[in-house]
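Quick start: what a row looks like.
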Amino acid sequence: MLLSRPPLGYPTIYRLIPIQLAAARGLTSIVKELLLGGVSVNEGARYDMPPLQFAICGGRFETVKVLIEKGALLNFANSNTAAHFAATSGSTDIMDYLLKRGLDINATNIWGDTPMCFALSSPFNIWKMMVPYLIQRGA
């Protein structure tokens, strides 16, 4: 795939770069190839949307693990953490993994929002499952 050395940091028609798209869709093998090809694990963070955020929001647990193992930052723009976005994803597996990595379940962003606030504003009734889960873990 990378033999022709395409510009891997160049935005697509959707203004996203390839690693963001691959992370969002859970295409873990492509994420690994892009990283091997020299793409930064935090590429796209300058747009306030690193690949890890896309993987978390998409509920792509295997991709999340790979990105974190490769050094993805767990703190995002506006003081949001990976736990904030995991709370909206509905993936307790991702949240458990992040908490085991030391993220604070009660971390606040610059507006004072916690992962619980994000869970309460999550789409598709995800909050019904995530709120009790967060409370059980100390939120």
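That is the whole record. The first helix runs from residue 18 to 25. The chain has one domain: 18-136.
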